Amino acid sequence: MRAAELVPAVVAADEGLTVDGLTPALLIGALTLLAAVAAVRLTSRTGLPSLVLYLGIGMLLSAAGVGILLDDVRTVEALASTALAFILIEGGLTTRWENIRQVVAPAVALATVGVVISTLVLAFCAHHLLGMEWPIALVIGAVLASTDAGAVFSVLRGVPLPKRLSGLIEAESGFNDPPAIILVIALAGAAVDPSESTLSVGLVLSAGWQLVGGIAGGLLVGWAGVRVLRLAASTSSGLFAIAVFAVATIAYAGAATAGVSGFIACYVAAFVMGNSNLPHQQAVNGFGTALGWLAQIGLFVMLGMLATPTHLIDQVVPALIVGAALLLVARPLSVGLTLLPFRLPWREQVFISWAGLRGAVPVVLATVPMAMGLDAEWIFDLVFVLVAIFVLLQAPLMLPVAKALNVTAAYQSTSLAVELVPLEELDAAVLLVSVGKGSRLAGVETAELRLPRGANVTLIVREGEGFVPKPSTAIRVGDELLVVSTARAGAAAERRIQAVSEQGRLAGWMGGQRRPGPPPRPQGSR
Fold first, then answer.
1. Which of 266, 234, 235 is nearest to 250 (CA)?
2. Does 1.20.1530.20 match the CATH number of domain 47-404?
3. Do 418 and 428 touch, CB atoms closer than 8 A?
4. Using one digit for the tens of pLDDT, what is the confidence trace for 318-340?
5. What is the fold of 422-522?
6. In the list 54, 476, 489, 522, which could disulfide-bond 485, CB 3.0-4.6 Å?
7. Identical fold at 47-404 and 422-522?
8. Tell me: the pLDDT tens digits for 170-201?
């Protein structure tokens, strides 16, 4: 028997994964990813978070009988926690201190005190409106206390808000995941063991220790990681990005092993590294964003496969009642009481209440009580239905609510991110060129680039400030050039810039003599 025939036979004999079994799984996985990417384009036009379609894809796969076993809730919870850690790492890497510096105090207050208030108020409503026992009501309140960063970011992108207001909402959604996770674990543990008082001093001290320990661990790993990573700055950008993610993963695993919050540790470590001016920042952000998207897709598809449609129907009415209590009572009270010392206008407080979208974290946290032994599988179904319904309700109305409250900005600066301008519809291409020390672009005037017809240098960013160049503007080391061209001229412009970078202003028109090397990075590429 040949080796190629022997390997599958041996694997099958061990009752492990076979080659024949893996191939269909790869095909289904690839098609699912393509469907998820297409869902992003669809949701960006409708204003809906893509998580709704991801959950739907998972439910369709489950209904189609795809043979993926998700019966072990502990395995699901472990996979979901890992995906959530990756999402938090991506959020930490891409959160800029200068964008949240002015609102960090109210954001932290909302992410801590606000989470506790929301938990207590929603538990009170669930207990009195639906007759839930207090331990279960508190668990549900904690599960639904956290807003979703991915949903908030994607929806607010299309709403012209003042930077202070949008920064506050986004910072809260990034900060409040770890406290909510700590609270759910603590309250679920108390619900499993009713002999312990839910509001015991030990439980409060345990939650505080996990929070403080996670922050300290994240700061330590982030600080050490920055110094170690600077020694590896000369490596390729792709490997450097992997190293950054590995350091943040060490923070998560190390903190969890030490008995503190790994979620807040990985977020803080990623935040420290993302704001430390490390090299290859574009590659790091691109890799982090791609891995974050992959984690979100896998997470929501998996959770969709875990849902049982017949069970979901039974939870529609309870989900509507709990969701209405959250949207109309718990969230406004938590925002109003928490932000009272900061004296924000009431209109902004109302909008912050409406913008508190629920998404990934509540659905993931709904698996924690089951994994800890609590016999309440219906909690997952209730949270699943609630998230789907209220995202569909709140997200499309975000812009009308902002306009009705008169909190929209008169002017909103437009990001250069390619996602904000669908270039394929404009028949255009964008190149972002970074001029390094070894480039012979330094000293070349923009007119001397002799770019092909249909391409032009539209902006130069120098020392953090952008300006529109003149034909006589000389390019300097460290500059970033934004080159806009027609789609047809994009490839020729790319070749020309690479040729001048390697051979100087006298390089051949089409770069025929240039040495092989990496081209400039297209804006939006990963």
1. 266
2. yes
3. no
4. 999 999 999 999 999 999 999 99
5. Alpha-Beta Plaits (3.30.70)
6. 489
7. no
8. 888 878 877 888 889 888 888 887 665 545 56
